Amino acid sequence: MYTFSKKLKTTALILMALGFVGIVYGFLAAPKTVEEAEKIIAASHHKEHKAGEVKEDAKAVVMHTEEATPTEAVVSNDTAKIATDSLTTDSTKVVAAVAVEKVEPTHETEAEVAKEEKEHAEHVLHQLQNKPWAALYIACIFFMLISLGVLAFYAIQQVAQAGWSPVLFRVMQGITAYLPVGSVIFFILLVVTGTHLFESNHLFAWMEKGITEKGNPNYDEMIAGKSGYLNFAFWISRAAIFLLGWNLYRYISRKNCLSQDEASDNTFYKKNFKLSAGFLVFFIVSESIMAWDWLMSFDPHWFSTLFGWYVFASFFVSAITTISMVTLYLKSKGYLEHVNSSHIHDLSKFMFGFSVFWTYLWFSQFMLIWYANIPEEITYFKTRIDIYTVPFWGAVVMNFVFPILVLINTDFKRIAPIIVGAGVVILCGHYIDFFNMVMPATVGDQWFIGVSEIASVLFFLGLFIYVVFTALTKVPLTPKRNPFIEESKHFHY
Asked: Are 306 and 365 in contact (CB under 8 A)?
């Protein structure tokens, strides 16, 4: 039986505490009024203005260091004199009148400018208020989907009747123990977002008041056309069905697996086989719809037929990476005596393979949209390339280039430090991938990695560690009567 070490438990609790404090601070630090947003905008413009002055001063210094020749000076003076003499009194008056007319705006123009500035300030206010909500949302869904990905991987092993993986089943079940906890928190977050319990929450544009009502200033014809699908009642009902379905399978399959340890035949194993086959059908459908509802609908004007697969690839490779890292940790503590380098090698192959699969989907989605160059489609990537340049291309490097360079070597797939290092980079890279899916539509150009983002990750990481490793203490780490357990114990590649 596994014993949850005090050191690891304390670490998890400290992470949760620090994360909670940081999350609260992030919400308190967000601006509350338009006036506060205007001050932030003014401060930003002041910094930009000062930066511009520094550039102009530097340019002037460079220009003054170049001495003009006498000939150039004479030509310059003569030109200035001719230009001055050519201006009559009447033409000077006309020019002055035109200048005054251009410099002094009408009252109507002033009102329009003031209105635009106020609308801009309100927009920035919503973006800055969204920032802590978006950070919380990204971390919450990321860790929950990791546990869901592990559950799907477990179901695949059951249906495939894989002979190599049964010694890892308890690790997978331990990681999926986070799914009920993560689901409850995430569902609460969805309800809070959809009911506008807090006025500062403007995450989903299609939930704004009056956006589907003709004549309302917020009216959006395209979103109104999708209101039969994108409405809160239907949206939250789908979420409830998906979360309940996933957790129900997790509960029953774990119960059958534990009952199989005490059984005299393979009845419970056969039940799990059929149950897993049914779950995978439900998972394929629900995962795609989930991706549309919880991630793609942040940009309700944009859609991609590849998006469901793309999201799946992102959290699935993160899930396999998590299995590998938890396994290596337990192995380093003297547990999982039947897990050998061949099991680790196979997990690493899945990490490598699905990293390539994610890249294939990323490139396919990007290339087709970019090449077609349809304005309503290309805006999605244009925003991310122009404003989120570092995280956008950084995700590609961390999720494709790095795994290719490190895990393509067969020997490296068996070396624990290399796998852990690659795993950390992959997990961080796919968190950034989720960051890229959510932040541009909710925070826009007001993004930066701050207290809210770091604190949200720390809190859910600590909670994840605490729940998973507590679950691992409940049952033996090796199944007893799985039909393929002996094959798994002696698996070598």
From this structure: yes
Calpha distance 165→475 (Å, rounded)? 18
What single-letter DSSP state applies at residue 446?
Answer: G
Query: Does the structure show a pLDDT above 80 at 31?
Result: yes
**Residue (of 220, 162, 199) closest to 34 by Cα position:** 199
Q: Are 20 and 462 in contact (CB under 8 A)?
A: no
- Model pLDDT for residues 311-331, shown as the tens digit of each residue: 999 999 999 999 999 999 999
| Alpha carbon distance 273, 155 (integer Å) | 8
Residue with token string 């003499």: 85
Three-state secondary structure call for residue 271: helix
171: pLDDT strictly greater than 60? yes
Instruction: Assess whether pLDDT exceeds 80 at residue 390.
Output: yes
| Segment among 3-7, 20-24, 35-39 with least mean pLDDT | 35-39
The one-letter code for the residue type at 287 is E
Mean pLDDT score of the chain, rounded to an integer? Answer: 87
**DSSP letters spanning 70-122:** HHHHHHHHHHHHHHHHT--HHHHHHHHHHHHHHHS--HHHHHHHHHHHHHHHH
- Which distant-in-sequence residues (6+ apart) come within 8 Å of 458 by Cβ? 15, 16, 18, 19, 22
Pairwise CA distance, residues 322 & 435, whole Å:
19
User: Worst-scoring range by mean pLDDT, 134-143, 172-181, 403-412?
Assistant: 403-412
Residue of 21, 71, 125, 3 whose CA lies nearest to 470: 3
Stretch 33-51: mean pLDDT: 70
Closest by CA position to 157, among listed 380, 322, 149: 149
* DSSP state letters, 1-49: -----HHHHHHHHHHHHHHHHHHHHHHHHS--SHHHHHHHHHHHHHHHH
pTM above threshold 0.70: yes
DSSP tag of 171: H
Cα separations in angstroms, 47 against 40, 41, 51, 131: 11, 10, 6, 22
Give me 231's structure tokens. 């409405």
Q: Is the distance from CB of 35 to CB of 118 less than 8 angstroms?
A: no
Q: What is the DSSP letter of 209?
A: T
